[in-house]
């Protein structure tokens, strides 16, 4: 098979995954032009990271839920409830900030286990279980906060979502530490990508031509270091970006390189075959829901830190943004398909559109209309691809 044929096959088999990156670039270019470059200014790039980090954290857990063939409608309420628990511990009872974080994570774990029990062992569909959870945990948020907001958090807690590494290695008008961190991460990406390519060649799997491989690395390097330069010229490296990057790396490895991850894909792709193959379906489903509860509590800590308060209405509609990020990023409605990186790109597409329209002064109602249409088109594209594949 020629190099050209290999490339054509890769594009055909992964058209949606490839297309989402091109769509992301196109959306950035369009809004950069419409906003006269404001979208890509150092300050705005930093704000994008800070304002949408909690949605991206939720999307990491949600994509695993969707791959397994489920859906979780309760994450917005869990964000609110865990943030409320943290606020009560830290603000009302004057405990150290880290005790509040641990309390939120503990409650999130219990919530994930609670919902995992009903889904995995009782057999109630996740849609119904989490719809119940959406109501239950919203009500518990109101009870916990006595239906009022709690603020402010101590400075250490606020720094979780609002703090920066800046000036660690010095710099003349920019933060050298940020550039160094991104450069090291880029070297790690090069090494991982090169190893993956060699492995695919060893197993006689199709790979792109070497010149195209080099071009891809150059483009990725440019984008990553440009992003690092923007952050370095604003306020430095956000703490929350480190948290998000660590979660992306960990969950990418979990979904792609572990037995548990393969079992999640197997259950979503073909439940009957997974059961016949000896997959412990109940425990895998329990683990998926437990994990979602934990990540929702992480998002709850980040959001309450960002807002410097716990609010009864916190997390409203977050579940829909997280679900939309996953589907736009390539997850299949029927399960068995999706990637953490795809969900991140889907979430960033939603973030760029929301932020870009906000900079243009577009009414919030129109923003919701556009986001709804984008989600509909993304799912329609998935259905179209499946029908075309079935026809062949």
TrEMBL record:
<keyword id="KW-0762">Sugar transport</keyword>
<feature type="transmembrane region" description="Helical">
    <location>
        <begin position="206"/>
        <end position="229"/>
    </location>
</feature>
<feature type="transmembrane region" description="Helical">
    <location>
        <begin position="73"/>
        <end position="91"/>
    </location>
</feature>
<feature type="transmembrane region" description="Helical">
    <location>
        <begin position="324"/>
        <end position="353"/>
    </location>
</feature>
<feature type="transmembrane region" description="Helical">
    <location>
        <begin position="365"/>
        <end position="384"/>
    </location>
</feature>
<feature type="transmembrane region" description="Helical">
    <location>
        <begin position="121"/>
        <end position="145"/>
    </location>
</feature>
<feature type="transmembrane region" description="Helical">
    <location>
        <begin position="176"/>
        <end position="194"/>
    </location>
</feature>
<keyword id="KW-0472">Membrane</keyword>
<feature type="transmembrane region" description="Helical">
    <location>
        <begin position="49"/>
        <end position="68"/>
    </location>
</feature>
<keyword id="KW-0812">Transmembrane</keyword>
<feature type="transmembrane region" description="Helical">
    <location>
        <begin position="283"/>
        <end position="303"/>
    </location>
</feature>
<dbReference type="Pfam" id="PF02653">
    <property type="entry name" value="BPD_transp_2"/>
</dbReference>
<feature type="transmembrane region" description="Helical">
    <location>
        <begin position="235"/>
        <end position="254"/>
    </location>
</feature>
<keyword id="KW-1133">Transmembrane helix</keyword>
<comment type="function">
    <text>Part of the binding-protein-dependent transport system for D-xylose. Probably responsible for the translocation of the substrate across the membrane.</text>
</comment>
<feature type="transmembrane region" description="Helical">
    <location>
        <begin position="20"/>
        <end position="37"/>
    </location>
</feature>
<feature type="transmembrane region" description="Helical">
    <location>
        <begin position="97"/>
        <end position="114"/>
    </location>
</feature>
<protein>
    <recommendedName>
        <fullName>Xylose transport system permease protein XylH</fullName>
    </recommendedName>
</protein>
<keyword id="KW-1003">Cell membrane</keyword>
<keyword id="KW-0997">Cell inner membrane</keyword>
<dbReference type="GO" id="GO:0022857">
    <property type="term" value="F:transmembrane transporter activity"/>
</dbReference>
<keyword id="KW-0813">Transport</keyword>
<dbReference type="GO" id="GO:0005886">
    <property type="term" value="C:plasma membrane"/>
</dbReference>
<dbReference type="InterPro" id="IPR001851">
    <property type="entry name" value="ABC_transp_permease"/>
</dbReference>
